[in-house]
Every structure is written in C-alpha cells, then in structure tokens.
Design brief:
Layout lengths: L2 H4 L6 H5 L2 H5 L8 H14 L6 E12 L2 E13 L4 E5 L6 H8 L7 E6 L2 E2 L5 H11 E4 L11 H11 L4 H14 L15 H13 L5 E5 L7 H16 L3 E6 L2 H4 L4 E6 L2 E7 L2
Parallel strand pairs: 3-8, 3-9, 6-7, 7-8
Antiparallel strand pairs: 1-2, 1-4, 4-5, 9-10
Bound molecules: adenosine-5'-diphosphate and magnesium ion (MG).
Length: 276
C-alpha cells in the first residue's frame, strides 16, 4: 500500500458534525468509502492486525523552548479485545504519556495508532473526544469524583453527557454500582466512603458507558495494601466478565496480577511478557 493512501485524512469536522462517522464507529456497522479504506481495507493491505489497539512506531516529543524531550521513542504493540495488560516502569519512563495517548487525551508526535481499526493518531480534538466517550473508561489514582454528588449521581454523569434518559441512566448506574458491590452505598457522598469504596465508584463510572477499554493510571497508588488487593480482585472479576483492562503501575506485585506485562524504560518497550 502506498504511503499516499496511508496518509489519507480522517473524516472532516463537518462529517463528524453531520453524524457521518456516528454509524461507522459501531463495530461491524455499515461504512462510508473513506472510512472503509481507512479502516478494514487499508489495514488488511498494510498488514496491521485488526486488534482493539494497534500502536506503530509511536513517538511523543515534548518541546520546551529549544529543548526536545522524547518521552516515547518508537513504541509498537497490539492489544486484543479481552486482554488484561499492565504497563510498568520507573518514574519518568513515559507511562502516563503512553496512557494519555491510549486514552485519546493526547496525540503522538509521530507514528500511527488505531483503536477498533479506526486511525486515531491523525484525528482532530472533537473526533478524539467522541472516541474517548465511546471507547474509553478512565480510572485515576485520586478517584476524581464530584465531592458534592452521591455515588449514584457520580456514576450517572457520563450518561448525562451521552444524552441517556433519566430512567435508563438510573437503572444503568445502579447496575454498575451493584457490579462493584456498592448497592448499599448509592446515596453516600465521596467523603462518606472509604478510599477503596471511592475507587469502586470511579470504576463503576468508568464502566457505565460500556467502553471497549478500561484504562487505569496507578489505580491503587492512593490506597493501603489491603484495599489495593481488593481493588485488584475487582479488576480480575471485571476481566473475567469480558472487559479489556490496561493499568499503569510502578509496583511489581500489582503488575503481576495482570495477564500480560509491558515493561517500559526511557520511552521504549524493554520487555513484553505474557504472565498467564
Ligand atoms: P511516568 O508516568 O512513567 O512517570 P511521564 O510519562 O509522566 O512518566 O513522563 C515521561 C517524561 O516526559 C519525563 O521525563 C517527564 O518529565 C516528561 N514529561 C511528561 N509530561 C510532560 C510535559 N507535559 N511537558 C514536558 N515534559 C513532560
Ligand atoms: Mg505517571
């Protein structure tokens, strides 16, 4: 496949606004020509596997004045649907930079990145926001819950943004909280919950939209050891339920709970190992 075709543009902002990509973003749904090329056909010819995530020679360079800092230097890997992956590396190795790219919060300086066979590395901000809402559920070290909202309302928030009706919102948020065993805490506010319970609310919120990928950046970083293990048991259960999980950590015993570990150092993959 020629370089010219590989460089083909993503749908325009107008197409997004008109909902052209709305339908095509549904896996297996009908496609318009441009997207057909960009996704399946092009990928098949280019030999890129139709993985849930494919990164090819990804670089992320931060420019500070005349200085250039290469936080990622040519990272390539695939993640299949249903995998449970930990990314581990020392502080400053590029983990959060990589996480922000996977989560479509940032774009690479160089290289190509596909989610669900959609080329996201060249997308504009509004398209990235759409992909982020549909495909990614985020969990952060410090939970990032709304302090004045109940657990139920916190979990309902993504559905409000997605325009889901109040009745359905309520039902889905209740179910998500029940999946993390918080049915009896739905009307509690964050300051009435333990750290572990707060993180479970955050996990319920991340999953309520049925995202393709659950992304967690140091999810146990603010928790004591016992609570950390409870959260890791929850991840294990969510993985068994079919969720694709990618978590970032600098702790080996946390990474060891995943089924695959990518070791990153100085912005490069040092080792990619399957652990079970
Ligand atoms: P980790 O999450 O593994 O600790 P990061 O991805 O946060 O590592 O950072 C990787 C490197 O990139 C570090 O040297 C860090 O200082 C640098 N870095 C991260 N974010 C920025 C930024 N926004 N601007 C400039 N340098 C950054
Ligand atoms: Mg980090």
């Amino acid at each position: 496949m020629s370089e010219a075709l590989l460089e083909m543009e993503s749908p325009t902002t107008d197409e997004v606004a008109n909902g052209v990509t709305e339908e095509t973003s549904v896996a297996g749904g009908s496609v318009v020509d441009a997207d057909a090329l960009e996704r399946g056909d092009l990928l098949a010819h280019d030999g890129v596997p139709a993985a849930l995530i494919s990164m090819r020679d990804i670089w992320r360079t931060y420019e500070m004045g005349a200085e250039k800092l290469h936080a990622l230097r040519g990272v390539s890997f695939d993640v299949q649907r249903g995998e449970y992956l930990a990314i581990i590396g020392p502080s400053g190795s590029g983990k959060s930079t990589l996480m922000n790219l996977i989560g479509c919060l940032d774009t690479p300086s160089q290289g190509r990145y596909w989610i669900n066979s959609k080329l996201v590395s060249d997308m504009e901000d509004d398209e990235l926001a759409r992909i982020r809402n549909q495909e990614i559920g985020f969990v952060f070290q410090t939970f990032n819950l709304l302090a004045r909202a109940t657990a139920l309302h916190n979990v309902e928030l993504p559905l409000i943004y997605a325009g889901v009706s109040a009745a359905e919102r309520h039902e889905r948020a209740q179910k998500a909280l029940s999946n993390v065993e918080l049915s009896d805490r739905m009307t509690h506010r964050p300051n009435e919950l333990s750290g572990g319970q707060r993180q479970r609310v955050a996990i319920a919120r991340a999953l309520v939209n049925n995202p393709s990928i659950l992304l967690a950046d140091e999810p146990t970083g603010a928790l004591d050891t016992k609570t950390s293990y409870e959260i890791m048991e929850l991840f294990e259960r969510l993985h068994e339920m079919g969720n694709t999980i990618i978590l970032v950590t600098h702790e080996h015993d946390i990474a060891a709970r995943a089924h695959r570990i990518i070791h990153i150092r100085d912005g490069q993959i040092e080792k990619d190992e399957r652990t079970r």
